[in-house]
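Exercise: predict the fold of this chain.
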Amino acid sequence: MSTHPGFGAHTDPTFKSQPRPTGEVVRRVAVYLWPYRWLAAATVLCAVLSLAFGFLYPKLTRVLIDEVLTRQKVELLAPAAGGLLLAFFLREVFNSLRIRVNNHLEQNVIRDMRCQVYARLQRLPVPWFDPRASGDLMTRVIEDVNMMSSARGSTAPNRHGELLSIVGALILMLSYSPSLTLSR
């Protein structure tokens, strides 16, 4: 807590943030992601592969039900069951890789943001710091960088994954039965 009476994050007008348009926020975050574009691409690739292996489940389950159980093609049981196990395993492998790569990407972005913020703070004149409590400054810097990074790290991959899931499910449904998919 600030020991300066009347000063702190609650009264300092320089601590007030202004709402920014989404385009500006995306542009500013993209600057930090650009040096790590290959890590970002690897995260998306792992998400796509994990999703693709997850979409094999209904296909292989259909083989088990339609071919093995209904048509009594027992020779397809081992390959279909093995395919299900392999699809499950590979889905989890690529999901784990996605999480690890995304965490590495997020930590690099946090480091770059903090370095830039601290470099900016070091260039400020000493009188700028006089009315401000150092604890308030440090809390603001740490929390803002963490919040910005966690918003980028948790929402972007989830939104892309959800969008890919919807598109993939729609494609699968259309491939199985276009009339049923498009009917009301």
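Check your answer against the key: The longest helix spans residues 77-123.
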